[in-house]
Amino acid sequence: MAKDYLESCAPNAILFTFGDNDTYPLWYAQEVEGIRTDIRVINTSLLGIDWYINQLRYKVNNSDSIDVIWTPAQIEAVGLAETLVAELKAADIVVIAASMINFGPSSTLKAWIDHIVWPGVTMVPSHEGPRGLITGKKVFIVAASGGIYSSGPMAANDMLVPYLKQILGFIGLSDFETIRVEAQSFGPEDALRSVDAALTQVATLKLSANSTGR
Q1: Cβ contact 161:178 at 8 Å
Q2: Distance between alpha carbon 204 and the CA centroid of its chain, in Å?
Q3: Hey, is 114 helix, strand or coil?
Q4: Nearest CA to 148 among 109, 107, 106, 100?
Q5: Three-state SS at 179
Q6: pLDDT along the chain (214 residues), means of 10
Q7: How many C-beta neighbours within 10 Å does residue 178 have?
Q8: For 157, which DSSP code?
Q9: Rounded distance, CA 61 to CA 10, Å?
């Protein structure tokens, strides 16, 4: 079948594959049997890796190099995303300290999210909806805000906590605990009262974890 795929391509074509199961038979046909070495095979599942992107710039067998449009800075950004995803995968517990900025997340937190929500790496799109690949982790969201958004007239304006739960759920995270530090713009007494309530909640969570042996 790999031979048929290669022979059906035009001269100097580019053939896109996904994963090793698609790619290896083509590689064997080209590298071992010498079939249609003018065709460049690109494994799209590796396009998030810096060395693979750079490798495309060089001639392989009889196939021409690929004029990669990514700049070195963009490739470096991919490397950062790989690091952040690896950190997330390695974590047993995820703690997100999030200050509300204009009702939503800060630009720094949003940039982190944009790096870790990665099709094919942390989630898989499908006709049935996305399937998250990051599972089995407890997520603590510590949300700080100038006003009160957990309840009352401003609750509808909370685009921080609901957004975080939705976007992190997109990649498979579903076990959330929210710790609110609210009313930080209402004056010292209200601010300290909210901090004390948050610390009490944290102490309760710590006792609960100890009691269950976690």
Answers
A1: yes
A2: 31
A3: helix
A4: 100
A5: strand
A6: 89 87 87 92 81 81 80 76 93 95 95 91 85 95 97 97 96 96 96 96 74 48
A7: 17
A8: G
A9: 16
